[in-house]
Design brief:
Blueprint lengths: L2 E5 L4 H17 L2 E8 L7 H27 L4 E7 L2 H12 L3 E6 L4 H7 L2 H8 L4 E5 L9 E5 L8 H14 L2 E8 L6 H14 L5 E7 L3 H11 L4 E6 L4 H6 L3 H8 L4 E5 L3
Parallel strand pairs: 1-2, 1-4, 2-3, 4-5, 6-7, 6-9, 7-8, 9-10
Antiparallel strand pairs: 5-10
Helix pairs in contact: 3-5, 5-10, 8-10
Length: 271
Amino acid sequence: MKTIIFPTDYSENANRALEFAIEFARKTGAKIIAMNAYDLPYAETVMTHSLLEIMKENSEAGMAKVAEKLKNANIPFETRCLVGNPVRLVKNLVEDEGAEMVILGTKGASGIEEILIGSNAAAILQSVTVPVITIPAGSKFNGVRKIVFGADFKSKKNSTALQQLAEIATVFNAEVVIAHVIVNYGIDNQTVLDAKRRISDYLKGIPHRFEVLSGENVENTLLEFAEQERADMIALMSRNYSFFESIFHKSVTTKVAYHTKLPYLALHEDK
């Protein structure tokens, strides 16, 4: 891994995520590109121009503190203070820099906020094609010894996600627990055996085991299981939805990103 994108709004949550990004960069030798995005609604006024100048100064002042932390950590890094939509800027930066990962802090959401407003973090999960690690409010990084991976045993489009999962588990020397959740349907033994064989091929040399769980919904069942397992990270594969599908479909990936108290790894299915 060569490059990690670290979007920050200089909040306490972002500072926690920076600690994780630094540790990850240490273990992989990757460079961190820290970025802050600032923008205003469109208006042709002198006041808007003045506010943008103030926002630029604030952005650069906050980035100077981030740069100081990265310098003290002896991590290769670059910084960017950019004007525009943060989701679009992160996507462009990932593509332009050939980055392999995005790490950022999240504050979560619930109720009407989740339905109508959403969050930049959730939008980033859906817009980039590289793994995204989100660090929720209140979490503390104490290493990654166990990862719970919510898997769909029927999926045949998970080779990229499994390769990425194996790489990250290797970085931390972590155990992987692969959990398939059954909700209102059964699953035959042959499907389970085929999935175990297929997934294990990607996790050779990595301690791992399989669990088949039953619950009322995938999201809550996975979150409760990860808590019972005392996992340090929860991972899921994000589905590739078309534009119209994404309007009406709130993926399990996004729901877990909103509600998990653990560092969360979003992987992506094969195209």
